[in-house]
Amino acid sequence: MNIIILPPSAFDDTTAMIGNADQLNHIKTVLKASVGDTLKIGKMGDKMGVGQIAYIDDKICTLENIRLDTGPPSKLGVTVMLALPRPKVLRRLIMDMTAFGVHHIILINSIRTDKSYWGSPLLARLDEFVLEGLQQGVDSVPPIITLAKRFKPFVQDELPGLINDKSALVFHPYAKTSFTSFVSKNPLPKIIIIGAEGGFVPYEIDLLASVGVQSVNMGERILRTESAVNAVLGRWV
């Protein structure tokens, strides 16, 4: 937690209130801050800055001398469309993509996505994972998150509008063109698409190709979803 991001409702004209248990615990046990100390803070969807602790106990921390004068860092300018991963890695992926500065995250169904994943209670906690990612990456503007439970309608009806005149790549273990080869001759794509652990099936790859998505591979090795996402996004930083 490299900054504390607070909702707009936490602020009034001169002060801010922190009541989140995780944030309070971080202030007290990691930062070991007390009255008079200054904290790095940000307003969700707005600017970042500092606030001085005026009061703190086990349930609340009051900040005064609030100064929010720093704009958030630029986003990467990339949309990540990802087959809904296993629930136990969903948190890490949302955190990592948010910390990287992904502008738009699309979680989509695929043939290799277990139907039970869509019933996971973790899907109701995406805002929590985004907050963790923002606080890790020192950002105050959350990504857009879209849940697309039907692959074919989304690809045929929604994806072309997102692509427009932009480049879009799907990472597929059996594609003939490598990502390294693609970026050596072209700008980085604006949309990247990554499947489940075994990749998308041929039908899905063909459907993506029909709307202008090019397939690329990441080399001879097949990576776990979270490894692939982080490896690809590393090209932007």
From TrEMBL:
GO BP annotations of the record are:
rRNA base methylation
* EC nos: 2.1.1.193
PANTHER family per the UniProt record, alphabetical? 16S RRNA (URACIL(1498)-N(3))-METHYLTRANSFERASE (PTHR30027:SF3), RIBOSOMAL RNA SMALL SUBUNIT METHYLTRANSFERASE E (PTHR30027)
- Subcellular locations according to the entry: Cytoplasm
Q: Which part of the chain is the Ribosomal RNA small subunit methyltransferase E methyltransferase domain?
A: 74-235
Classification via CDD domains: RsmE-like
- Any one Pfam family here would be Methyltrans_RNA
Catalytic activity, reaction form: uridine(1498) in 16S rRNA + S-adenosyl-L-methionine = N(3)-methyluridine(1498) in 16S rRNA + S-adenosyl-L-homocysteine + H(+)
Keyword entries, A-Z: Cytoplasm, Methyltransferase, rRNA processing, S-adenosyl-L-methionine, Transferase
Q: Which SUPFAM superfamilies match?
A: alpha/beta knot (SSF75217)
Which GO MF terms are attached to this record? rRNA (uridine-N3-)-methyltransferase activity
User: Under what name is this protein listed?
Assistant: Ribosomal RNA small subunit methyltransferase E
Q: What's this chain's function? A: Specifically methylates the N3 position of the uracil ring of uridine 1498 (m3U1498) in 16S rRNA. Acts on the fully assembled 30S ribosomal subunit.
Gene3D superfamilies, from UniProt? Answer: 3.40.1280.10
Write down the top EC class of this protein. transferase
Which family, according to the similarity comment?
Belongs to the RNA methyltransferase RsmE family.
Any one GO CC term of the record: cytoplasm
Highest taxon of source = Bacteria
